[in-house]
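Case 144 in the screening queue. Each case pairs one protein sequence with one candidate compound; here the compound is guanosine-5'-diphosphate. For every case the pipeline is the same: read the inputs, emit a complex structure as tokens, and attach any notable structural observations.

Predict complex for case 144.
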Amino acid sequence: MAGTKTFFIIKPGAVRHEHIGPILAKINANGFHIAALKMLMLDRHHAEHFYSVHREKPFFESLVTFMTGGPVVVGILEKENAVAAYRKLMGATDPAKAAEGTIRRLFAENIERNAVHGSDSDENADIECDFFFSKSERFSKFED
Ligand code: GDP
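Case 144 output:
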């Protein structure tokens, strides 16, 4: 079924501050199925590739250094319209602008160290999920 999954990251700051549990609890409480999950270090090459659309931005180096500076949790979430539903739960990129009750409003430190990533389209969700998870690491409610 199309449009039912998204890819997410709990970023290094949130992992370091012991926010993995509260963030996963919020995800579950909002009706998402966790279809895949693991903890790892992003290497610089992968982080640069992952954020390549921001390569020309002044914050690119800082962002890559932050994302590779400690372990992250990566996962696949499932729900109807997962990409849009999870971006709503995440809140705006800048936590100062994020709505009350969103993950970024609750757990972000600033616009860069903003606790979580979520795919911005179904196409990118497919690419990101395939990059991090093999078929045997996924436990989908929707797919075989
Ligand atoms: P997202 O889809 O909400 O994560 O936002 P973007 O794709 O625009 O940005 C990717 C990531 O780059 C964000 O989640 C932040 O970690 C970081 N970022 C975005 N804008 C800024 C900025 O203006 N300054 C800094 N330092 N980091 C930013």
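Case 144 observations:
- The longest helix spans residues 122-132.
- The CA atoms of residues 14 and 73 lie 10 Å apart.
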